[in-house]
Each structure stands twice: as C-alpha cells, then as structure tokens.
Design a protein that fits this description.
Helix content is 98%, strand content 0%. With 127 residues, it is mainly alpha-helical.
Length: 127
C-alpha cells in the first residue's frame, strides 16, 4: 500500500507540475499573443489618427479658403450695394434739385399769370 500512495502522490505531484508548466506556457503564449494584438491595434490606431489629422487639416484649409471666399463675396456684395446706393442717392439729389427749380419756375409763372390776368381784367373793364 505505501507504494500506491507514493505512486499516487508522485502522479498527483507530476500532474501539478505539468499543470503549472501548462499554465506558465499558456500565460506566455497568451501574453505574446496579447502583445502582438496590442501592437497591431496600436499601429492601426496610429494610422487612423494620421488619417483623421489629414482630414482635419484638409477641412481647416477648406474653412480658411471658404472664409476668404466668403469675405470676398461679402466685399463684392457690399461694393455693389454701395454703388447702387450712390446711384440712387445721386438720382434723388437730381430729382430734388429739379423739383426745387420746377417749384421756383412755377411760382414765377404764377406771378406772371396773375399779373396778366390783372391786366386783362383792367383792359376788359375799360372797354
């Protein structure tokens, strides 16, 4: 019997030793596989970050270009508007001047008509 128990213990200790060895191998294998996957993921992330940074730079350039275009468009629109306002103001000033001259001429004509009517009335009464 003692032999069986020492054989049983030898078998158990051998199983434990193999178990420890397998665990160690498994840890090493998983660790290596994990590190490989981690490096692979890290490379993928770096590549993705670079792609995103390039996109951001392109967007920045588009925004800056768009701002320049927008500023130029606003400037052109403002200039067109100012030119139209100047033209309108010029025509308004001309109309005001013509109105003033016309009103003055109308008053002069009214005085002349009143004077002639008075003269005609005097001529008619004398006849």
């Amino acid at each position: 019997m003692p032999r069986k128990s020492s054989n049983g213990q030898n078998v158990i200790s051998e199983i434990k030793r193999v178990e420890k060895s397998l665990k160690l191998e498994l840890k090493k294998s998983l660790g290596l596989e994990f590190r490989r996957e981690l490096k692979k993921t890290e490379r993928n992330l770096r590549g993705e970050i670079l792609r995103v940074e390039k996109k951001v730079e392109r967007l920045k350039k588009k925004v800056i270009k768009g701002e320049k275009n927008l500023k130029e468009e606003i400037r052109e629109t403002r200039n067109d508007l100012m030119n139209k306002i100047d033209s309108f103001a010029g025509r308004t000033i001309t109309l005001e001047e013509e109105n003033t001259v016309g009103a003055h001429q109308t008053r002069e004509l009214r005085v002349q008509i009143d004077d002639r009517e008075a003269r005609i009335t005097r001529i008619e009464t004398t006849l």
